[in-house]
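Notes continue from the previous slide.

Worked example: a multi-chain complex. Inputs as given:
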Amino acid sequence: NAGVTQTPKFRVLKTGQSMTLLCAQDMNHEYMYWYRQDPGMGLRLIHYSVGEGTTAKGEVPDGYNVSRLKKQNFLLGLESAAPSQTSVYFCASSYKQAYGYTFGSGTRLTVV
Amino acid sequence: DQQVKQNSPSLSVQEGRISILNCDYTNSMFDYFLWYKKYPAEGPTFLISISSIKDKNEDGRFTVFLNKSAKHLSLHIVPSQPGDSAVYFCAASTREKLTFGTGTRLTIIP
């Protein structure tokens, strides 16, 4: 039982490059979330989805886009990476909104 | 605007003693509170939660206390064990989203 799987686990980007982070869950959860973790800032919500085909902005959405074309997948895109987007990104899913999250193991992204 | 605050970035406790982690919040609309534990290179995992209609919830060595009038919650771990060394995040829910604190790194000293 995989739970929440994030790919890739590590990535180094040059400023201005684009990339997509993939989150996949096998628990049939309706709700999915993308967070970023930075030192001294905790976990901050980037975007979230309350079901297939839906997305919504969180606290820090600027510079990111998301898509939820399939219920099990939630993609996070960086159109033009900036050094300020260097962070650890966590995806989470839940069966009930804002409750009982299951997190992936994270993606460490460095933008140089 | 940090609605959920953990004012102690780190805490060291002797093995076998009590660990107390604290969390303060400002939004009175929060109605559910959770604690997550995070080991290095892993995602956070759920530890224990409490509804705003309760003031205490216990699960084995872990107890969470909620003081609504003070907008304060705490996590007690008794007795502390080496495997408890991790970063602990408190989180608060408005039923729409979870807001996380900044985390406290707990180190258990053998």
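Summary box: Chain A is about 0% helix and 50% strand. The mean pLDDT of chain A is 94.
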